Amino acid sequence: MQPHPTMLDNAGAGPHPTVLIASHEESSSRSLESILVPNGYTVLKAYTAAQTLERARESRPDAIILDATLREQGPLEVCRTLRHDPEFASDTPIVIVSLDHATRQQRIDALRAGAWEYLGQPLDAEHLLLKLETFTRVKRGADRAREDGLVDQATGLYNLRGLARRARELGAQASRLNAALACVALAPDFGDGTARSELNDGVLEAVVTQLAGALRAAGRASDAIGRLGPTEFAIVASGADAGGAVRLAERLASAVTDGPRDSLGTDLTAKAPFRLRAGYSVVSDARVPSADPADTILGAASALQLARAQPGGPWIRSFPERPSEAP
Fold it and tell me: Which residues are CB-contacts of 319 (< 8 A; sequence separation ≥ 6)?
């Protein structure tokens, strides 16, 4: 297979991205290696679950491929262990490769375990390469942002400063494409007057982890996802108008409902039931000189506050408020 033209400069300048292949079968490792190495990747190998965990912590790879042949622990268990390991980078992409055709339930289970993708047989080499190109680019971008102090350490998402910077970058892109730019802000509403301060710290942390994981899994690689406050998050999307912002919010809400669970597979909303509140703001024409893309974040946050202040009203609000949303 000839190298894909975009792979050799994967994720920008610097060393080749490193992929850790975890498989009990040497033949499976060699097959994956034969796809990755000619396309600019450095490959590390592990043959057991324990070895996978050790090498993932030590080498900090740009991506991990977990093969279904792993013994002792299956790939889902290894994935869950890695996601809850403080010595492992939580935003490292993990791809699980099945021995059979991938079913919808298997994909959902993999996403809940913290994987970014679940690929079945027959394995499409070009599809795998395109996925890895996107994933490693996002990972390396997050690494650079973390080094620049633009990342929230608890979730691995952008902090407000990082999100504002990315919003301006996406705004410039939207301007070149004559496209809109939208921001959706979300936060949990625990109902019954439950204040955030009344929740157990462990439960609150679990909810934040669930939200961050669900948003990361549901967002597009081109979206910018960040944490605005203790339980407030936002996602900036290029090319989304008002209708697109609402659809984005609905997709994110669905991802939270079906999203990552705790290490025992328990639905975290059962521990602290909540519904989402959301707000959105849109710059319909990013070419307007006076439009600061970062202002969409402030607008979405303001709309979110309105939605939270009126529990009996619509779960999602716009900024400025649309007439149909007025109470």
Answer: 279, 280, 281, 299, 300, 302, 303, 306
Q: Quick check: 300 and 237 in contact, CB under 8 A? A: no
In our burial notation (b when 16+ CB lie closer than 10 A, e otherwise), range 4-35 reads beebeebbeeeebbbbbbbbbeeebbebbbeb
pTM over 0.90: no
Whether residues 87 and 203 share a domain: the answer is: no
Domain end call among 123, 147, 171: 147
Question: Within a domain: residue 206?
Answer: yes
The helix/strand/coil state of 172 is helix
**Which of 115, 147, 179 is the last residue before a domain boundary?**
147
Three-state DSSP at 244 gives: helix
DSSP characters for 16-55?
A: PPEEEEE-S-HHHHHHHHHHHGGGT-EEEEE-SHHHHHHH
Instruction: Tell which residue, 126, 63, 71, has the closest CA to residue 96.
Output: 63
**What confidence tens digit (pLDDT) does each residue in 188-221 have?**
888 754 445 556 667 778 788 888 888 887 877 7
